[in-house]
Amino acid sequence: MQPETPDRTAQIRLPGLTLAMLDGLARVLAPYLRKGDVVTLSGDLGAGKTTFARFLIAAIAGEDVEVTSPTFSLVQSYETPRVEIHHFDLYRLEGPEELPELGFDEAREDGLLLVEWPQRLGDALPPNRLDVALSESAEADQRDVTVTGFGGWAPRLERFRAATDFQKNAGWSAASSRFLAGDASVRSYVRLQLGEKAALLMDWEPQPDGPPLANGLPYSRIAHLAEDVGPFIAVSGALREAGVPVPEIYAQDTERGFLLIEDFGDYILGKLVERSGEIGTLYRPAVDLLLRLRRTPVPRELPISDGWTHRLPDYDKRALHAEAALLLDWFLPAMTGTDVDQAARGEFAALWEAQFDWLATRETGLVLRDYHSPNLIALMPGDPRGPLGVIDFQDAVIGHPAYDLVSLLQDARLTVPPDVESQLFNHYCRQAEQDGVFDADGFARAYALLGAQRNTKILGIFARLALRDGKTAYLAHLPRVRAYLERDLQHPALAPLRAWYARHMPGRVDAQAIARAGAGR
Known about the structure:
Layout: E1 9-17, H1 19-29, E2 38-42, H2 49-61, E3 75-78, E4 84-89, H3 99-102, H4 104-110, E5 111-116, E6 129-136, E7 143-150, H5 153-169, E8 176-180, E9 188-194, E10 197-203, H6 219-222, H7 230-241, E11 249-253, E12 258-262, H8 269-276, H9 279-295, E13 301-305, E14 308-311, H10 317-324, H11 326-336, H12 342-359, E15 365-367, E16 376-378, E17 388-390, E18 397-399, H13 402-409, H14 418-435, H15 440-469, H16 478-488, H17 495-504, H18 511-519
Parallel strand pairs: 2-5, 2-6, 4-5
Antiparallel strand pairs: 1-7, 3-4, 6-7, 8-9, 9-10, 10-12, 11-12, 13-14, 15-18, 16-17
């Protein structure tokens, strides 16, 4: 929910817009709208409110949608893959007391609201809203438009203006815009098309992830998660030098947090596997990329720009502990209905401490951390860079190379059968042995240890996304992640941890229990 700060406003004035320019404004604005938003459309009869609403609905739902004026029905709703749109025309509304009959509050909770004649709302006018006011211009076929962000929409409108300024300065102001579904982070993406050229606008306002935890530090700082675009720029350069295909950066604004980057397209590895079922064949090049990284030393200090550098942090015990503790803080309380007691917490931390002490004595290298199917994209045939491109690498650290391998072969979004996992794991180990000294037993233990730690973290993160952020789609993956965790805990070196999980973890993952807990917050 947006904070209610009704006194704050931001405004953009756009005089003399033609019909085509109104359509363009709707297309640029559409990617920034989301569930729960209220967009009010103000102006006299014939000002163009319904026309702009049609443009906005088409920009979100697609060109083929049939938009009907709600003049007589007072509301028309549109299901879209991204958000449900509710278009209200309140001209014939007698008063705010009629709003419950229209389902106004329910629509606001589960969708995006476009409201013509918002003055009819009276005291029910939401303090957090975006208002688009249209009026006649000097030319009969033009309109003067004033866009105003009220309350929580004020900083969002300021951010929108900064993004469009960046896009203009990069030479892409004439590009068409389309929302691109992002990940579980604070980043957002807009797909731009300019003739035959395509690019992604990454909007990443510098900020930490979550409130302060230990020693006044947020989770992102403890777990060494990137908080701005600098690490993305730095790590992309290092990967490019190592021969790993990553998006080119066309333009950047490190201070405000905008990047214009190469668009690798939609051939995401996970989707290709779902269509073909050829998981072993499709994952093999991804394993080979990890072998390439293993063979290529990467400096710890990486350049960003203008003398600024990014130092790759160690994937240290503090970060590993903080990630594992997400199970205790979010997943288990939601599953059991009670907090984990201090004795169980202490034993959990001590058992992991012993494992992390052993891990600290092993080999290290560059670890990308989110190396799995959603972040691997098939490039066009014949691309000289190779068959796969890599994205979402800004959280890279120095750690054990088994982490990225288990991240790939125990994919949280896609079930990797045990036999396929074993085949690809053995392929990696055989190639690593040919390269020189390789401790196969130690690597296998690190693989199981880091798989258990990662899957423990993911159970906590997916629960947190549902409970804190209202993102419940990730709950569908919990049974798969739990199964991976059970697989990892079978390693003999993890027997003490296996016993702790057997005592404290519910026998079955109940995603609905977490969803219900989130709904009650």
